[in-house]
Amino acid sequence: MSNTIKFPYKNNKEDRIVHATIADGQASILIIEAKNTIAKAASIHNTSPVCTAAFGRTLIATAMLGVRLKSDKSSVTVTVDGGGPIGKITAVSNGKTLKGYLSVPNIIVPNRTDGKLDVAAVVGTDGLITVVKDMGMKAPYIGQTEMVSGEIGEDFALYFMKSEQQPSIVSLGVLVSGDHVLSAGGVLVAPLPGCSDEVLDALEVRTMLMSDISHDLLDNDGETLIEKWFGGLDPIILGVSPLDYVCDCSKERMEKALISLGKKELQEIADDDQEGVEMICHFCHKNHYFNNEEILQLIKKI
């Protein structure tokens, strides 16, 4: 088995977010099909299998938060920092696309005794999940909760309960075999205000059905799973939206980062014997090169 995920990430089936409600709108359902998105992220960041699982689960959870944003100009940034050897995992969503990076992408640890990837061992449990929502207002919303398991899903369930005051069922999964991501996705079930005890009890009974979402998505799409899991609760599909890993970096954005260094530091770069400076995007690893003449032009803008 190789240490990093290397494979073509495209197939004929596009990733999707399926939106639904049950019981006359008493609870909302999101099912995320994310195989290609996670495979693309793993390929870009050259992740080991267990890091792919941790990174992928974080990206999927971030997509759950992003799709709930009210404006196309809004975004959410999630940082998972459990104190483990993987370091910080950062993910960003605008509701339609994802991007992210992780501090150490190639950690290798033994599998758990049940044969599954030991995500908690690389993520850790001594730290925080931080969620920053930029909704175009003067100050962003910032929410934080402590890590409880390091498996990501339980940690985000606690976040939804404590920071968003919405107890939810959260299941996240990335199925990796050797060098391949076989399946990836998530389900979020959120009872809404006024949800009856009868519906809450029905959802609790169904919780175990949703515990292995990555395996379930191998042979089923989101609509099929909604019908299987929530039949009898009058599920209604509200719509389907696309999902992809997309980095929107550009030389213009990198210019702003350089300008933020200040005139003194930019002048030192220009006076150095080097031919210029190369900026590398954390999200996609694309290189953006600035020669000395361009740096001098940036100094004039300050």
Describe the 3D structure.
The chain is of the alpha+beta class. The chain has helices spanning 35-45, 49-66, 119-123, 153-162, 197-206, 213-219, 222-230, 251-259, 263-271, 292-301, and strands at residues 16-22, 27-33, 75-81, 89-93, 97-102, 128-134, 141-146, 169-177, 180-191, 236-242, 244-245, 276-280, 287-291. The strands form 3 sheets. A 6-stranded mixed beta sheet has the order 7-6-3-4-5-11, covered by helices on one side.
Shape: globular
Strand content: 25-35%
The CATH architecture term of the largest domain is 3-Layer(bab) Sandwich
Overall tally of structural domains: 2
Outline of the structure:
With 302 residues, this protein is an alpha+beta fold. The chain has helices at 35-45, 49-66, 119-123, 153-162, 197-206, 213-219, 222-230, 251-259, 263-271, 292-301, and strands at residues 16-22, 27-33, 75-81, 89-93, 97-102, 128-134, 141-146, 169-177, 180-191, 236-242, 244-245, 276-280, 287-291.
